[in-house]
User: Fold these one by one.
Assistant:
Number 1:
Amino acid sequence: MKLENYEMHLPSYSIGEDVYGQIQDLCRPWGEKILIISGEKSWAAAGEKIESAIRKAGFSLLGRELFGKDCTYSGVERLRALPAYQEADMVFAVGGGKCLDTCKCLCIEDDKPIFTFPTIASNCAAVTSVSIMYNNDGTFLKPHFFLRPANHAFISTDILAQAPPRYLWAGIGDTYAKYYEATISSRGEDLPHFTALGVAVSRMCVDPLVQYGPQAYADNKVGKVSDSFEQAVLSIVVTTGIASIFLTRDFTPDYNSGLAHAIFYALTAYPVIEEKHLHGEVVAFGVLYALLVDGQEEEFLRIWQLNRKLGLPLKLADIDIRRDQFAETIHRIPEMSDVRHYPYKVTEEMLTNAMERLENM
């Protein structure tokens, strides 16, 4: 593959308990007038501290708008038409992945400065150069790629430690999946530099979480900011984001997904998955299948033990799926786009054998 004049932008971020104190120095070069776009719960969690930092810095706050429900193009256009958005020098995006993705699609396309303030540690949206777009009915549409990520991410461990622990819990599963899916989908290939770098970085999506994940989850349950908690947050938000920037391009094969995500998307045919379970929770379960199918016995046992410590799913019943339902799903999984770029053909027999192994553990 020959690429000419390829442009790559790495994320800029700050992390810590008092990170909002850096707003004045990091945002001042871009102007004075700020529009905040957030979700309701995220603003309740972080709004007071952000408003205090804005006042202390002497900025002008034009107002606050809700981003909507999903990251949709119609939602982006609604925000773009707001007079406050047109007047603003910069946007502060405060919330979870869908809010941050909406604001990135709005601002980066307009070349308007955007600063992200994640309020849950379940994903890497704060630092990535892609937005996951949905249809107006809430179904997945496509990824929308940008040349650069947000101008800066303010990752407040104090705010994140107060967030519901289930988001960190699910984020751990979605994060360690990055390493296994990237290494399997790229196996045996002569990779361009940026993809090879992404695969190498993805190792840091699993090792710190095996080491720090259980303690980080325990600390999150009591709202404690600890070194273990910060290390887990860095893996989920920053490391995964950097790996994604290198692995996910609209002109290369998809090295950013794999069998674990194929299993998740196939199981969304059953409403209970979306109604009762988080994305990363089900992906964590799918990683066990991916490792068994790939014959990685040592890694399978390592992740199985980690899931057991954290209470992540180990059996179909843990995600409210019956064996007969999974058997009905098995024929769809090998045809999913997530395993289209795989070093071998995933078969129904592989998945059936993995199911029997897991259910009898």
Number 2:
Amino acid sequence: MQKKRIVVALGHRALGTTLPEQKRATEKSARAVADLVEAGVNVVITHSNAPQVGMIHTAMNEFQKLHPDYTAAPMSVCSAMSQGYIGYDIQNSLRAELLRRGIYKPVATVLTQVTVDPYDEAFYNPSKVIGRILTREEAEAEEAKGNYVTEVEGGWRRIVAAPKPKDIIELDTIQLMLDAGQVVIAAGGGGIPVLEQKEELKGASAVIEKDLISGLLAEQLHADELMILTSVEHVVTGYNTAQPSPLEKITVAEAEKYMAEGQFEPGTMLPKIEAAVDFLKKGGKRAVITSIDKAKEGYLGRTGTIIE
């Protein structure tokens, strides 16, 4: 009998921000994922990269300012770098945790490219803030290069598009590794956004929502379940009100009703619900949203918000 397949999405709170924080956080996340592996599940891991890609983007561009002979790193390159070094920490932490439990199972990271539509409306309305605060002169220089900036407290910051993912370039590789019983870390930070230009792939100045790519990956791998691990045990309605109400087991129709009512905050919980609903409507069996500490209990159906 084929083992159950689960795509596990780790939010930024499961990864930390600084290098030491990330090392400690990935060790904790590894224990949660190892619980699932120990329970007999085949796992594919996706993860956030918001603080890390911002740090890399800032560092690379500051380096270029100090050393004009070098070029600034485009967003696609920064995304690839973040996938590599976050994957490095996750795979080593998980490998060690599995070995401590007497489980030998290869763990590997796949640098994953994701195609986006060049005519996606997001490119005309960029919304994701990245990098450090800029002076007026620096902001004008960014605009002169064709980039977008937005005014914030203390100056300006660059903003990039967040288009919807279309296809996962390395899907066949991920599938083969999963079929071989390996734990795969893929589509980190939403994947490296690329545009198809004949036979070539060109990096896009964009970021992809991690939850949306997690849902797409789960769909294309024909996973049984999508598990989104975040900072809260349950999704709630009435968020930031005097009477928040935790959601336990709900249907797709109920989730869509709550979305239509505006119950979920854009940019945080809403993409998670959207990803879960899309996955289930395209053949998925179950989606679970819960905290990293409750991953095993969520898998067993004892806690978390379960959508079926």
Number 3:
Amino acid sequence: MELHSKIYVAGHRGMVGSAIVRELKKQGYYNIITRTHSELDLCNQQAVNDFFANEKPEYVFVAAAKVGGIVANQSALADFMYDNMILEMNVIHAAWQNNVKKLQFLGSSCIYPRLAPQPMPESCLLTSSLEPTNEAYALAKISGLKYCEYLNRQYGTDFISVMPTNLYGPNDNYHPEHSHVLPALIRRFHEAKVQGASSVTCWGDGSPLREFLYVDDLANLCVFLMNNYSGNETVNAGTGKEISIKQLTELVARIVGFNGEIKWDSSRPNGTPRKLLDVSKASQLGWHYSTELEEGIKLTYNDFLNNPHRVER
């Protein structure tokens, strides 16, 4: 990409999209196109086609998605599959039809099998069954990844995909039911501290192992890959480090300042037992993350405190 290249970031108001915009501006890119949902409904194929025909972006980051934690995924299976599949197909297809030079599709590590080898290499995709609690979302993301691959093979496009691990950071969604584990914990422990609660009950038994990547580090990788990688196989985005949910809750509680008891409700689902990405491909390309988990959680808690409108989303 050149600094003057016309770049469209789909989903620029979300956590990932806003981080990509920040990173692009930080690196000197200035011809960035964005549209809010009210300005452009990505689920409306004609509207998307018209946008691409009129704007003719040269590079596209597909960071728009309908996202959520276990509760949200389980309660709206059809919505998660339909909305994500429709919006990504509309954007990718329109990008191909309008001769976009390069497109980057962002997925999720949930595309990999529930019992995949650990750490999970890109090659383990579609080798066994998915985690049932987010299967609908995973299937939609796999479809987007594969559509990029098939366009490359059939039409010679340069469409790549990136599969991030669990993300967190500024502009996250802190909704008590629809958010992912880390922002949900930040909100719960903060509210418990403010209310003087003696305990907080968390789902499962705390045993699952998870990997977390600060969203600004992901954005740095996304721009790096747009300039340095082409290929049909996706690229994992993570730290290569994992932590148990129990250790994570204790860390968040300490950072937030909650000193009460942490209880566990083992009748609630744990989700996938372990999710650690093999990040050797990104490393071999010359990229490495820079934000350690404790530092990142402190930055995210500060974002939570200073962005009250995010709390109610």
